[in-house]
Amino acid sequence: MRVIRRNVQKLILMGSVASMFLLLYVLNSEQEDVDKSLKIEIIERSIRSMMNQGECRQPHLPLDNPEIMKFYKLVEKINCGSKPDWVMCEKSICFVKPEISAIHGDITCSYTDIIRKSDYTARFGRTVRIKEPYVLQNSDFVRVACHATSGERWFGMAYGIRDTVQRPPAPNLAPNLAVLPPEVVAQAQQQLQDLPTTPFYNVLMFGFDSLSRNAFMRKLPRSYAYLTQQLGAIVLQGYNIVGDGTPQALVPLLTGHTELELPETRKRVSGSGSVDAYPMIWRDFARLGYLTSFNEDLPYVGTFTYRMNGFDSQPVDHYLRTFYMQASNMLSGSAPNCVGNQPDHLVMLDYTKNFMMKYRDSPRFVFSFHGGLSHDSINLVGAADDDVHDWLVSLKEKSLLDDTILIFMADHGNRFAEVRATLQGKQEERLPFFSFAFPESFKKRFPQEYNNFLANEHHLSTPFDVHATLKHLIHLQTSGLYELTPDNNYDNLSNDIKTAPVQPRDIHISEQARGRAISLFERIPNNRSCADAYIEPHWCACLNWLPLTLNDTRYAGIIFKAASSIVDTINAATVERRQLCAPLQLVQVNWALRLQPHKELLEFKTNIDRDGFLADLSGHTVVHEEFYQLQLVTQPGQALYEASVAHNLHTFNVTTKLTDISRVNQYGTQAKCIYERDPELRKFCYCRE
Ligand SMILES: [Zn+2]
To answer: What PANTHER family does the database record attribute to this sequence (predicted)?
Structure first.
């Protein structure tokens, strides 16, 4: 009896401990949710603010502004050493380069497949030792060791596009004959003869990290000229960022959502999941039978692997990350910006082209995004101009662009260089390079959509719009098969694709966020404001900013108040790490701006005719809040910060959000003590020791 009772007590105790943990878990996860919806609310309040609602006027940003041009200089080509790599692959065939055999005679190589296990690890396949070419089957990437009869040896890596990726075609649509077994192809071809089918357009997206529209024109003039003059690319003049950093650009572009709206994937949040939960646009293409590829260099700061957990399953058919991850181990002795004897950017250009060539008869979606040259330097990307130009020429010459929509783009402008400390640099940061080039057949097949796109060239546009455009492209090519959503919103299209898996349930989108995306194949209204486009005022390049004279007594008080609020916000963020991070003090304010709402906006009362053509400008809108933007220096560490500050005109309180504070000079080793413990505090922490 006593034994039973003791067991019961034990069970009750275990049960209550377990439920306590469960409660803690629930509270924790609820806290994150509350936190998220609160953040969205704050962001949306600032998006709705009065001064954000004016019709967008793009700032005039001269290319040759001497204030900016003083940071630009010419750079040498990337030098990866004089000894060429021995082995290369074309599509799936890897072989010793003929010029190497000519020098060294008979060469035998051992090939070992590098197979992805996760975004962070790989395993090696069986090693095959042959003189003949090696066919990639289990992976796109191989480790290669060769020796020649001359006694010379070579060790390195090679990449191609493996042979065995298959994708079942979507029902009622043209199958990808190139990737199916011969007997299936024969059968499909028979059936296809009776079916009216039109080919799908490929999507080839290539991007550079941190390249504004102006910087692209300055640093890649040959590529720019070829894109715009030979390929007829349309450069979006009003393409504006919607947040700070790479994920804030690429997540909306690839999913149509902000990170806050999507399931939790941040590494530091316990219980967070993988990025597999994101509704990536390439999945929509894959569902139609497209072959897919997504490629980034810089594996340690990958868009989805740096702060986020990365992908559990390989997200696309061909995924260059696995190569770069291994290269950082195996070829760590390579020269800067090189993998072995090949420049990093050439690897990506080449892999992308190989992918386009390999599946000539199938629809393809590829997104390659290069950061190595452009992320930390305003000048280095100039070293790639000739290569990018030649790559574009060769795509064109090989007819790979005949049925391809080429999207050449960037995520945002330069962020860390001193150039951002100037007013124009700051505006350029918000206006990344973004261009589309359409094949002639597209213009003929979809003239209305193409004309709309042309009309949008100078209008305010965002990553949300590009996402909606890609959705619209899918719809255009499958119209009749899939229904549009009732509100005609291309951004929600995948819900209606019958073969689509159910969207993850934990994607939340507010009323305000609905309608923020406009497909570029539709007309963007002339008077679109940053509020309409879901851009917060401080990211919106269209706004009128009034520079303030620092020693003007009318502004000295508010400038000091705003500066103190920024420093207080930083110190509040590090207070729990005070044993590691020193408190910061204000040294000086470099510049301050006041955000000016449009005069017309303040005076707009109502429409005076029923059609809404004419406005009654006799009104007087009360402004409740105004925004300031400051750049300041703190010590210790001489940190340079830029931040937006809201000034309430009723209470005279000033407030700053931590997320609105950017560090604009490098923190380098200053934040060493916090790297592992709390990486999100890096830009705010000056380590005491
Ligand atoms: Zn970036």
So the answer is: FI08016P-RELATED, FI21235P1
